[in-house]
């Protein structure tokens, strides 16, 4: 299966993890306070549904900044409802990367706040212009397959609807080069691009609260290797570890303190080492579960094992040419 259908393929093959006590759609009431002027909306990852990434909300003297806009309309609407209730204007969205669970909501945000500016790495613009049209062809083919089950058809249709609005997903301002200070809505922030997940991934640090948003460099229940360059990813985790953060907002999963981030990073290193060894895939995924221990969402073990088996067999071990291509692209 070509890289363009990315996450959907791993979900269909490996099965998404069971939902964890989350069955009603995201609401603005799900937005939780993190620190003064900082909130987050946890992204959901439920059975027979693609994920929404976590969204971070920052308040500046001139309005609101959102980091990552979700995929499903319910997630993005919850953000918009929260912004409306705050009485502040939405000034900016920053996208960690081009995967639709972090970028797809931009079209809705833009429609609701036409003066908003979108900030992202060049890989986002390139994906909107090149990867998405190719992926749309791929998804149309999946949709036309009479064998397709209803849940997969629904997932395909949601992504196709986002691709149809892809011009609204393009960034207005590209972030590239060395890490830089960037003031958004009057709030001083620091942003930079690191590599390994999707061809150029943006991190954002809020010095006032010590909050570091890292997109999909950190994800639970497992790292999503669909478009990854695993070795560069490992190097980026070490770069992120050197930053003076108090907490990390991952792309998926709960907010982590420094000890939890370090534990995730060590587990990632051991997973890669295991993938490069002759050990059985089941041994590598058992090692991952043991390394993460209580950090894994309750009931998420089976889903995590299924996804890791898929990634080990189809990505980390079986497709060196594809990984080499993703590494070259990043
Ligand atoms: Zn994601």
From TrEMBL:
The keyword Ribonucleoprotein does not apply. One of its GO terms (biological process) is antibiotic catabolic process. InterPro entries: Metallo-B-lactamas (IPR001279), NDM-1-like (IPR050855), RibonucZ/Hydroxyglut_hydro (IPR036866). Keywords: Signal. Residues 1-21 form the signal peptide. It comes from the Bacteria. Residues 52-252 form the Metallo-beta-lactamase domain. Pfam families: Lactamase_B. Belongs to the metallo-beta-lactamase superfamily. Class-B beta-lactamase family. This is MBL fold metallo-hydrolase.
